[in-house]
Automatic annotation (TrEMBL):
SMART domains: AAA (SM00382). PROSITE patterns: ABC_TRANSPORTER_1, ABC_TRANSPORTER_2. Keywords: ATP-binding, Nucleotide-binding, Transport. Gene3D superfamilies: P-loop containing nucleotide triphosphate hydrolases. The lineage of its organism: Bacteria, Bacillati, Actinomycetota, Actinomycetes, Micromonosporales. Transmembrane segments: none annotated. It comes from the Bacteria. Residues 18-254 form the ABC transporter domain. Belongs to the ABC transporter superfamily. This is ABC transporter domain-containing protein.
């Protein structure tokens, strides 16, 4: 696989799947950080690695871009084995976002974002256009923020610049190691919302490490729950992880309140609706079709009603009972 584009050439190739085949990391002292881990992240999917401290989730992330070399196994981007290519060239095609951002303090915001295009030899005009485009994409006005230095930004703004820098050369894969944990809870929620909006536009293949289950449930298309030694306990959708834990470890890890968390990732669909009453439910609270069951439950509890009207494009399509909503949060085991 040619991981180093020609100078001035296009580094972007959309998104690629990531496949881990029996990867293992054993250190010289005999410590096995990761044992025989296999999983696949489909192209354009966001997979979250989560588990207790010391379970090897950050080690797995760093093996993908070969900041840590695997002892055994294969790591594929698409059909290509990344363990057989030049690691420096590889990293220029993989975006990497870390907890404390790692911006160069002596460089402006624009210069930070331009780092990888500069290494790839992009023309200045093309680099400038790309930098401005990405700063706008992450919600930072290039005219206002481009000439600032990292110390002149808030923590949330620095994190946005870190994401823009990681996306600069249109990488096939984006790796994120606890990217939002260093900011306060309110800023973290806003960053998560902005990141979901951004991912809806760019559809990159993303592997994100977090210790926050709520963040994993909110952001992930699929979640990999790891135990000590990088053992894969379960790899599934957030709703399945919360609703049907595959092992006692997963059941304990997601906690007794997993039913409430499950409501947040379960949409209201036509299948759970009852027919409308004769008056169309004019006096009942309204919730949107496709909205989360958690928000529907909140509307029911706030109004002290037993039913809500579900609407689509402003028109009522059915009735949702509180009993049905609670049933959506039911868990197994």
């Amino acid at each position: 696989m040619d991981v180093t584009p020609e100078a001035g050439g296009d580094a972007g190739h959309g998104a690629a799947s990531i496949t881990l085949e029996g990867i293992r990391k054993r250190y010289p002292d005999g410590t096995e950080a990761v044992r025989e881990l296999s999983l696949e992240v489909k192209a354009g999917e966001l997979a979250v690695l989560i588990g207790p401290s010391g379970c090897g989730k950050s080690t797995v992330l760093r093996m993908i871009n070969r900041l840590i070399e695997p002892t055994d196994g294969r790591i594929l981007l698409g059909d290509d084995d990344v363990t057989r290519v030049d690691p420096v060239g590889l990293r220029r095609r993989i975006g990497y976002v870390i907890q404390n951002v790692g911006l160069f303090p002596h460089q402006t915001v624009s210069a930070n974002v331009a780092t990888v295009p500069g290494l790839l030899g992009w023309p200045r005009d093309r680099t400038r256009r790309r930098v401005d485009e990405l700063l706008e994409l992450v919600g930072l006005d290039p005219a206002q923020f481009g000439r600032r230095y990292p110390h002149e930004l808030s923590g949330g703004q620095r994190q946005r610049v870190g994401v823009a820098r990681a996306l600069a050369a249109d990488p096939v894969v984006l790796l994120m190691d606890e990217p939002f944990s260093a900011v306060d809870p309110i800023v973290r929620t806003r960053l998560q919302e902005e990141f979901l909006r951004l991912q809806a536009e760019v559809r990159k293949t993303i592997v994100l490490v977090t210790h926050d289950l709520d963040e994993a449930v909110r952001l992930g298309d699929r979640i990999a729950v790891l135990s000590q030694g990088g053992h894969l306990e379960q790899y599934d959708t957030p709703a399945a992880i919360l609703g049907t834990p595959a092992s006692p470890f997963v059941r304990e890890f997601v906690g007794a309140d997993r039913g409430i968390r499950r409501l947040a990732v379960t949409p209201v669909t036509r299948e759970v609706l009852d027919p409308l009453p004769a008056d169309g439910g004019a006096e009942l609270p309204a919730v949107p079709l496709g909205g989360s069951a958690y928000d529907a439950l909140g509307a029911l509890l706030t109004s002290a009603a037993e039913h809500a009207v579900v609407t689509e494009d402003g028109q009522p399509v059915g009735l949702l009972s509180r009993e049905r909503v609670l049933g959506l949060g039911a868990t197994v085991g």
